[in-house]
């Protein structure tokens, strides 16, 4: 580009080619390493994580994690859209509550079916406008069915309407019985442990 500028202005391009090569080599050797990019989580990966020996489906944290993971995958959401950045930063104006989930009965010729919609109060692209996504159901018998995990999580963790959708009851000795919201860091940590 610099050489083209010289030619465009009828100025002679005078550069020491050996010195230029040295700059290229130094730039290459001092370049930061390429960033590792994880593969996209597929349904097969999620099923494998749910069948992992260290995954206990009776643990309240694992229920919240499984519900968030399957629903986030089914709705094609970014982890920051369905988790909370940190415990003190949870707020219903930004984060999903149980009240943001709604059932819609769709009439049919054979039998009415129930569909679920999730309203995200805040997204990276639409900010405060948020967006509403449909929850894809994989079938009652499928291990990674988000609706089945969500119903179980809400029932067993006793999630209230104004609490974070993925809040869970702590089983740790110091905080036993207290409700905590699933944070993005905790979600990532658990996902990495199960992969």
Number of helices: 7
Distance between the termini: 45 Å
Mean pLDDT: 85
Overall strand count: 5
What can be said about the biggest beta sheet?
A: 3 strands, antiparallel
User: Approximately what portion of the residues adopt beta-strand conformation?
Assistant: 5-15%
Order of helices and strands: HHHHHEEEHEEH
Structural class: alpha+beta
Enumerate the strands of the largest sheet in spatial order, edge to edge or round the barrel: 1-2-3
Q: State the helicity in percent bands.
A: 25-40%
* Radius of gyration, CA atoms, in whole angstroms: 25 Å
Give the overall shape, derived from the CA principal axes: elongated
| Spans where pLDDT lies below 50 across 5 or more residues | none
Task: Provide keyphrases for this structure.
5 strands, two-stranded antiparallel sheet, alpha+beta, single chain, 195 residues, 35% helix
Q: What features would you describe in this structure?
A:
The structure is a single chain. α4 runs antiparallel to α6. About 35% of the residues lie in helices and about 15% in strands. Strands 1-2-3 form a 3-stranded antiparallel sheet, with no helix packed on it. A two-stranded antiparallel ribbon has the order 4-5. The protein has about 200 residues and is of the alpha+beta class. It contains 7 helices and 5 strands; from the N terminus they run αααααβββαββα. The relative contact order is 0.17. It is elongated and about 80 Å long. The longest helix is centred in the middle third of the chain and has 15 residues, at about 60-75.
């Amino acid at each position: 580009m610099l050489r083209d500028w010289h030619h465009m202005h009828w100025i002679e391009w005078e550069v020491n080619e050996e010195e230029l090569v040295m700059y290229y080599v130094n730039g290459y050797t001092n370049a930061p390493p390429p960033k590792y990019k994880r593969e996209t989580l597929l349904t097969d990966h999620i099923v494998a994580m749910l069948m992992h020996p260290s995954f206990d489906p009776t643990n309240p944290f694992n229920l919240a994690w499984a519900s968030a993971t399957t629903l986030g995958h089914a709705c094609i959401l970014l982890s920051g859209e369905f988790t909370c950045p940190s415990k003190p930063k949870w707020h219903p104006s930004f984060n999903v509550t149980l009240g943001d989930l709604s059932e819609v009965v769709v009439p049919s010729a054979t039998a009415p079916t129930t569909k679920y919609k999730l309203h995200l109060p805040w997204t990276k692209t639409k900010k405060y406008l948020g967006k509403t996504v449909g929850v894809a159901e994989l079938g009652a018998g499928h291990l990674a069915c988000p609706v089945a995990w969500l119903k179980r999580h809400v029932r067993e963790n006793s999630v209230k309407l104004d609490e974070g959708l993925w809040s869970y009851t702590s089983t740790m000795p110091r905080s036993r019985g207290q409700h905590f919201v699933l944070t993005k860091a905790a979600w990532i940590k658990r996902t990495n442990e199960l992969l």
